[in-house]
Amino acid sequence: MQQIGSIEFELLRKPIKHMRINVLPPDGQVQVIAPDSFTDTAIRVAFAARISWIKKQQQAFQQQARQTERQWVSGECHYLWGKAYRLEVIEHSGAHQVRFGKDNYLQLWVRPNTKTENRAKVLHSFYRQELSHEIPRLLDKWLPRLNTELNDWRIKQMKTKWGSCNIEARSLWLNLELAKKNHACLEYVLVHELVHLLERNHNARFMAYMDQFLPDWRERRQLLNRQPLDAV
């Protein structure tokens, strides 16, 4: 980690033309991606020029609503597709599973004395199933529209990104946490990452593609940032 003023940041160097500064969820960690040709002085000057913007982005993350630390017990609030559900833990002798209960309850069926971390795994598996159902539908919709192809997609838990795209491998990673967000948020992240297959950098051409294919992408991004984060 490096530091300028009161702000710590991770510095990465890549064979690119322009320096990028990312303020990442969930807690506003700063990442600087600089061209290999940039000197340390050039990086510091460019960083200093963006300090006000960086602090504004970090403040937005700090003010964002957060869920309390999860214990996976009855009565807790858990989110699915942007909707809050109350968790009902039901002990039984059968297989672990999640079901929809009445009155906005999610039922977590587990064997007696199941440890907290294993209860979490059951719910995470449920989230993965939900995403695995939605993602192919969205890819069938968007790959033809963007006139591009994808070789592979996967789901994993990520601390600092909602998604990522490996352009050379034409593969897509999506954050498991997206199952907790509104469907519109998942679609926004997926389209954002697919557009990187058309334009690698977050430049004017990239923004023009986003405006063309998903005109309300800024509103969707705001919706994603307004929804509750997990506790940190």
UniProtKB/TrEMBL annotation:
Pfam families: YgjP-like
Highest taxon above the source species: Bacteria
Domain YgjP-like metallopeptidase as annotated: residue spans: 19-226
Cross-referenced InterPro entries: UTP_pyrophosphatase-like, YgjP-like_metallopeptidase
Protein name: M48 family metallopeptidase
Biological source species: Sediminihaliea albiluteola
Taxonomic lineage from the root: Bacteria, Pseudomonadati, Pseudomonadota, Gammaproteobacteria, Cellvibrionales
